[in-house]
Amino acid sequence: MKPFILFALLLINTISFSQNFWSKVEGLYGATGSSFAKDSSGIIYFANADLFKSSNSGISWAKINSPTPSTYTVSCNRNIFFVSANEGVFRSSNFGISWDSCLSSSYSSINQFAYNSLGHIFACSNSSGIYRSTDVGNSWIHFLDGKDIRSIFVDSVDNIYCGVLLGGLYKSTNNGNTWKKLGFNNTSIYSIVINSVNTIFVCAEGTIYKSTNDGSSWILANNGIYAAQGTNLFIKQNDVLFASNVFGVYKSTNNGINWLSISNELGEQSIYEFIEISNGSILVGGDGKGIYKTTNDGLNWTINNIGVDNTHIQSLYSFNNNLIAVMYHSGIYYSSNNGLSWNQTNVNTGGHYTEYSCIAKDNFGKLYCSIESSLYSSIDSGKIWTFISAPSVAILNIAFSTDNNIFVGHVGGGIRRSTNGGYNWIGLNIGHTSVLATNNNGDMYSIYFRTLYRSTNNGINWNTLPQLPSNDNYCMAFDGNNNIYLGTLTGIQFSSNNGQTWIQKLNLINPFKIVINGNNIYTIQDWGQKFYYSTNLGSNWNQINTGLENVYTVALTRSMGGELFCGTVHRGIFRANESIIPVSQISNNVPKDFRFFNNYPNPFNPVTNFRFEIPLESFITIKIFDMTGKEIYLLTDQYYKPGYYEISWDGSDFASGIYLVKFFTDNYFDTKKIVLLK
Fold first, then answer.
1. What are phi and psi of 34, to 5 degrees?
2. Burial code of 462-496, b = ≥16 C-beta within 10 A, e = fewer?
3. Which of 550, 567, 628, 650 is the Cys-Cys partner for 316 at CB 3.0 to 4.6 Å?
């Protein structure tokens, strides 16, 4: 339970935070590669929701000012920067210190920029053709209106080539004023490059072609490369060709006659972007881990993502002293120090997308993690995982009966049960499921649309309960009395009678994560945009988003030490900085001395209370230790004004035994012995 503090100097409840409530957890590096740029001094820039720069050839990165939280393309010419985002196109003439808008949000589908030798800018749109500016973005002229432009290349004599979705290849010899079609009718051109002898290479519907006569005729140039729609082409200054698609990265040193796979050290991931930097080295942006570098044209690769922490977290779970995270593209990671540093486990998805993932603990402390349709288990708190099975359909949720049978809910595929640890599965004939959960008594619940099922005999039989208030139901949690909290499209519904009747607890949009500890409830609302909490089981609610603005949150967990962690889309992991503390003033008296009182009750089960008095403004730390001296819980760690306080601790997550509570301030120290007796 988060500590509840009664400050005897306020009549009304208030919340005061000296800093952001949420702060970024550093150390879990990676991102989905989006776009690179380079300025005249060789500093490299990388866009992935935020903007990053590297002054040491990509070895490490630092975040710089971005005009919006949705920047996905960055480009630089003559040290003028342009970025595209959901809000439009922005420009900077001072290396990103400040930005101004130069194309409105109606042009938010800009996906590429190109430049000719005069510095004219060409911006490609997914929906409305090409925009040209001859005055550094102050004004724009529109060409090829209505066409979905997927690629652009400007050659050494300023001819412009562009590829159109289902529209073929076009060329302009007069700065975009008129265009000539070069073939590929009704075909999508996803990438274009031209070498030093004017050989044109294009990716057409996943197949690579080349032309040595300005597009009059084309021949295949894909020997040794697996064809895939969206293949991306890149050419170095020395005419070495590179191609990437979902099957990997390839290289050609003989003008596209043959291709060699160079993906061994990259794994099975998509590479979206290339840039050539100093000494012929190449940086690539890929799925999951983000940025890789090669100094020998792909013979070897190194991960160069230090400082790029825009990971996409799919699942997040805290168990014992480990924080476990599933990244969207690269598998399972764990941290044993509250996110200060991270280790990748033996589960590496190699760039494969992870749209569905969940983590759960069985009745004996064994962890299970699903990634798509694959199920893994861990007996060491998430450090090492063993593959169990793949029940053929993506797993949406995991639950356990009192006899430790495993139940999984499938995406569009109902429920399956395993009686032998997940090695074999039996389908249950109770329809589809969107929510699957077990309460503290072992009763199991399953939901499909407005139908709620309940089993009181370990999933053998299921009874249909009265219809739910909403068609859209996302999550379910239980308090200590087995009351149900159901996240629906219109808020949190509450039932105190096993789902027979419901009342509204919180009237907001789409709470799809709910965590309950003691009397505290934490939830993510409004499609992951807002964090709410209640300290009285939902009777009253407060919202705290400081530090988490413009972030889409998809995962929420609470550590044994009482800290909250949330996982986000392309923003990594955030930690709650301070305790959630309603504060009330009831007297103007100020104590004469520091005092830390014995807890009451003592022994206790599971909640006990501590009083302390502060005569002057002080930074107060209260920690709980086991008898070996190991810190197990941080009650509070912040500044307080003079006054009388009371703080409570819920030991539900801890074993019976003797614990030490230590009170720290600059001018005072005390220790109390407490007894948890269950």
1. -125, -55
2. beebeebbbeebbbbbbbeeebbbbbbebbbbbbe
3. 567
List Cα–Cα distances, 495 to 478, 480, 504, in angstroms.
10, 13, 9
* Length of the chain (residues): 678
Rg (CA), the chain: 29
DSSP state of 126: S
Sheet of 88-92, strands arranged across: 73-77, 80-85, 88-92, 100-103
pLDDT over 80 (residue 80): yes
- The set of residues, in sequence order, having a beta carbon less than 8 Å from that of 56 and lying 6+ positions away, is none
CA–CA distance, 91 with 99 (Å, rounded to integer): 5
What is the reported pLDDT for 2?
38
Class of residue 442 by CB neighbours under 10 A (exposed 0-12, middle 13-18, buried 19+): middle
pLDDT of residue 630 exceeding 80: yes
Q: What would the mean pLDDT of 499-521 be, rounded to a whole number?
A: 87
**372 closest CA partner among 326, 420, 425, 418:** 326
Report which residue type is found at 129: G
Predicted structure pTM score? 0.79
Q: What is the pLDDT of residues 10-59, one digit of tens each?
A: 322 334 444 678 988 988 888 876 799 999 999 999 998 889 999 999 99
Contacts of 620 (CB under 8 A, 6+ apart): 612, 614, 636, 637, 638, 639, 640, 663, 664, 665
Q: What is the pLDDT of residue 584?
A: 42
Exposure class string for 298-313: b at 16+ Cβ within 10 A, else e = beebeebbbbbbbbbb
| Separation CA 102–CA 392 (nearest Å) | 49
Mapped onto helix, strand or coil, the DSSP state of residue 549 is coil
Note whether 349 and 331 are within 8 A (CB): yes
Are the C-beta atoms of 207 and 220 separated by less than 8 Å? Answer: yes
Do 564 and 573 form a contact (C-beta atoms < 8 A)?
no
Count of other CB atoms within 10 angstroms of residue 5 = 23
What is the CB neighbour count within 10 angstroms for residue 128? 19
How many CB atoms are closer than 10 A to CB 286?
A: 27
The number of beta carbons lying within 10 Å of the beta carbon of residue 602 is 14
Instruction: List C-alpha distances in Å: 90 to 71, 107, 143, 435, 511.
Output: 10, 11, 20, 43, 34
Cα gap 172→182, rounded to integer Å: 10
**Angle at CA of residue 355, ends 428 and 348, nearest 5°:** 105
